[in-house]
Design goal:
By secondary structure, this protein is an alpha/beta fold. The chain has four domains: 2-237, no CATH class; 243-358, no CATH class; 365-551, Rossmann fold (3-Layer(aba) Sandwich), CATH 3.40.50.300; 554-643, no CATH class. 47% of the residues lie in helices and 16% in strands. The protein has 26 helices and 16 strands. Strand 10 (436-444) and strand 11 (450-458) form a beta hairpin. Helix 4 (48-59) runs antiparallel to helix 5, helix 5 packs across helix 8 and helix 15 (365-372) packs antiparallel against helix 17. The longest helix has 22 residues, at 119-140. The protein starts with a helix and ends in a 6-residue tail after the last helix.
Length: 649
């Protein structure tokens, strides 16, 4: 009880935390006032797919609160939108979206008899059964097992929609709230378990019990949403290991080796809230976890709640595989370590965490806007198109930063350079290089005689698909950038990929290996096209239909150049006006000069003359090959005289 009183006093005296809770409530009310999609789905005015996409767009936005970007619902993670995507995709694979829609609407409908909450248990069990049924049918028809939904997320998923309708009576099943309840001793069974349809009922009863106790202790009537804010506050501030160790949580308190790991993790900005040796039941864990010793360190890394899981063959032998567990319990394998002693083990872990920390910083829309000089809203719109359609083309004149922009969009999607692949098409590029083909190999037999073999080898795209389909990568985005896409015979290069792009997760037979290719949902493709090489209209129509096309206009290019010059070469801002005059004379937007010719950190009038002589004029000579006399219109000195005073100093 003293622990609870201490935390209540801390919360009520924290002005910033109270203001944040109030602001979140205001934003949630505004959201709900304009959220009519659930009713539209009930009236069959929209499909479940349209509902899912709209929900994703609305719930993933973040709001600035006390200088931090805050997501007011927490639905965009694994147990929310990702789970929704997975259950929809497996149902769509076997044409069972109608059944899923009916089951979803039935499950999220709040019972008119609210005197008993046991109906939530029936709804959860019934919806989980529908998911299992569609999953079973999908697997029988070749659906990849690694893309199937995990039933354990059902509770959070349905509670979110109950909460949208009545947050006071049906609180959302947030993990932070469950952990804080456990910390206060109100939910002794609060640890994550395999799916249990009665878990939500226990959760709501514990919340109400705590609400009544807090009201009694403070002479203030607490609402359930206010209690949720309080629990979130507690969960986020349990960063000091001593606070946890003084209680009952964490059975590794006496292990010196575990405490050394706690200190090392803290050095790398991971604050351990509790450390425990997990006693796992064989049926509940993957094969690689069975008969192993498992240490789990839960805590926070910045604003992220997660856990490091160490799976030991034997701690005394220092052979261990390290996993990262995200906020909703999904495990991702990070690294394997073998060492001869503890000091070497800790050194190797330190080296790995240092490298991992270098990659930790998120590359944001704001970063991309700074790097590309494009408007943030423009980039956000392009990202939305890529996220929704999975592939798109960026096209425009040469030098308009198409590939550079594609790379920045890819960095936002992947947050890792290692998951960005780039290939450049050319007239000789083939299906065999892109998808799969036969390759000659010279081999020696036992006598040493050389002979020729022919083997089937995967191309770059098939290798990418295989990598993205791995269990540990299934929730990581991969981006393939196809530079100068229109220079190849795309219909021949893509082959059956045109079908696979439209019907993601469908198995497509391949001609050489006789195996099947699956293009997973976590692969995105960005093609770039120079309009000088070949127009968009000349592309295969089937390919055009699958690739939304984004045009980098001359006005955008000129705006980028103007911003760049104002920031880095304010004394040469006249170059932007010069380029506009030149483009007006060229007349054909497909051949306008792009900004990248002039985005040079050491740009001077002398450097401009070299760029003009060796890059711009040869380009114009090629364009005006049948009107060579017109090139004289673009003499730089004459253009500069017209421009006015442009000093060489």
């Amino acid at each position: 009880m003293e622990r609870l009183i201490t935390w209540i006093q801390a919360y009520l005296s924290d002005k910033e935390a109270l203001e944040q809770a109030q602001r979140i409530d205001e934003l949630r009310k505004a959201f709900l006032a304009h959220f009519g999609e659930l009713e539209a789905l009930r009236r069959k005015e929209i499909t479940l797919l349209q509902f899912k996409k709209t929900l994703d767009h609305k719930t993933k936005s973040k709001h600035q609160i006390h200088g931090k970007k805050t997501n007011i619902w927490g639905f965009s993670g694994f147990s929310g939108q990702m789970f929704f995507n997975q259950i929809y995709n497996q149902a769509a694979y076997v044409d069972m979206t109608a059944e899923l829609t009916d089951a979803f609407l039935e499950a999220v409908q709040i019972s008119p008899d609210q005197t008993h909450d046991s109906w939530t248990q029936d709804k959860l069990a019934g919806f989980a059964d529908v998911i299992r049924q569609t999953q079973k049918v999908a697997l029988e028809k070749g659906y990849p097992p690694q893309k199937c939904a995990s039933i354990k997320f059902t509770t959070f998923f349905l509670s979110f929609f109950w909460g949208l309708q009545d947050l006071e009576h049906y609180p959302i099943y947030y993990k932070a709230a469950r952990e804080a309840l456990t910390y206060f001793g109100y939910d002794p069974d609060g640890r994550d378990k395999p799916f249990d349809s009665s878990a939500y009922l226990r959760f709501t009863r514990c919340l109400r019990t705590l609400r009544d106790e807090m009201s009694r202790l403070t002479d203030k009537v607490w609402s359930v949403p206010e209690v949720q804010h309080f629990l979130f506050y507690v969960s986020r501030r349990l960063e000091d290991t001593e606070m946890i160790e003084s209680g009952d949580t964490g059975n590794l308190r006496e292990s010196r080796a575990a405490q050394r790991l706690v200190r090392l993790l803290r050095e790398h900005n991971f604050i351990v809230s509790y450390a425990e040796e997990v006693e796992s039941v064989p049926d509940d864990v993957p094969e690689e976890f069975r008969n192993k010793i498992i240490w789990r360190f839960a805590g926070t890394e910045g604003e992220t709640t997660c856990a490091y899981v160490f799976v030991w063959d034997m701690p005394s032998e220092y052979i261990c595989t390290v996993y990262e567990e995200n906020e909703e319990g999904f495990l991702r394998r990070l690294h394997s370590i073998e060492a001869e002693d503890e000091r070497t083990f800790l050194t190797k872990l330190h080296v790995y965490l240092s490298r991992k920390g270098d990659e930790r910083r998120q590359y944001t829309l704001g970063d991309a806007a700074v790097d590309t000089y494009l408007e943030r809203e423009t980039l956000e719109e392009w990202l939305d198109i890529l996220y929704e359609r999975k592939q798109m083309i960026i096209y425009g004149p040469p030098g308009t930063g198409k590939t550079y922009t594609a790379q920045r969009l890819a960095r936002i999607m992947t947050q890792s350079e290692r998951r960005i692949y780039l290939v450049q098409f050319h007239p000789s590029y083939t299906y065999e290089e892109f998808i799969e083909g036969v390759r000659p190999e010279v081999a020696e037999d036992e006598s040493g005689a050389a002979h020729m073999n022919v083997t089937v080898r995967p191309g770059i795209f098939l290798e990418l698909c295989n990598e993205a389909l791995k269990q540990e990568n299934r929730d990581c985005a991969y981006v393939l950038i196809i530079d100068e896409m229109n220079r190849a015979n795309t219909a021949k290069v893509f082959g059956e990929l045109l079908y696979a792009l439209e019907y993601r997760n469908s198995a497509v037979p391949l001609p050489y290996s006789k195996s099947k290719m699956v293009v997973p949902d976590n692969i995105y493709i960005i093609g770039t096209m120079n309009t000088t090489d070949r127009s968009l209209a000349q592309l295969d129509f089937a390919l055009r239909r699958r690739f939304p096309a984004i045009y980098v206009s001359s006005s955008e290019s000129e705006q980028i150049l103007r911003k760049y010059l104002e920031e880095h070469h304010s004394d040469m801002a006249w170059v932007a006006r010069l380029v506009r005059r030149v483009n007006d004379r060229i007349g054909n937007p497909d051949f306008f000069l792009g900004h990248s010719y002039f985005m040079n950190r050491s740009l001077t009038p002398q450097k401009l003359r070299r760029i003009w002589k060796y890059e711009v004029i040869p380009y114009l000579e090629e364009y005006f090959a049948y009107e060579p006399e017109r090139v004289r219109e673009f003499d730089l000195e004459a253009l500069l005289d017209d421009e006015g005073d442009t000093s060489d100093d």
